[in-house]
Amino acid sequence: MGIRDEQQEPRESHSPAPVWAMLVATSFGIGRLRPGPGTWASAAAVVLWWILSKGIPVAWQPAAAGLLVLLAIGIGIPAATRVARASGSKDPQFVVIDEVAGQLIALIAAPITWKCLLAGFILFRGFDIVKPPPVRSLERLPEGFGIVLDDVGAGLYALLCMHALLHFGILPR
Question: Which residues neighbour 123 within 8 Å (Cβ) at sequence distance 6 or greater?
Answer without folding.
Answer: 106, 157, 158, 161, 162
